[in-house]
Amino acid sequence: MKRFPPGWDEARVGRVLAHYEQQTEEEAVAEDEAAFEDKTQAVIEVPIELLPAIRELIAKQKGSRKA
């Protein structure tokens, strides 16, 4: 049995894989640089063991915006 996150299915996973498999190194670098230039997002380093707690906080925050 295949399990996907909410909103994902095998077709969507296939499209994402195809995108990154077909991407040139230059395109990948440009995509990464664009992500760092997005002023609506922040990139930080955190210990891996904190990721579950961080994901939970993000989910709660997104949920409170919908309510």
Query: What proportion strand?
Result: under 5%
Distance between the termini: 33 Å
Please give the radius of gyration in angstroms: 16 Å
- Give, in order, the helices and strands: HHH
Number of strands: 0
The helix count comes to 3
> What is the general shape?
extended
Give the uncertain stretches in residue-range form. Answer: none
Structural class: mainly alpha
Largest sheet: none
Task: Write up this protein.
This protein has 67 residues and is mainly alpha-helical. It is built from 3 helices and no strands. The radius of gyration is 16 Å and the shape is extended. The protein starts with 9 loop residues before the first helix and ends with a helix.
Short description:
The protein is mainly alpha-helical. The chain is 63% helix and 0% strand.
Key words describing this protein structure:
3 helices; single chain; 67 residues; mainly alpha; extended
Topology:
Layout: H1 10-22, H2 25-37, H3 51-66
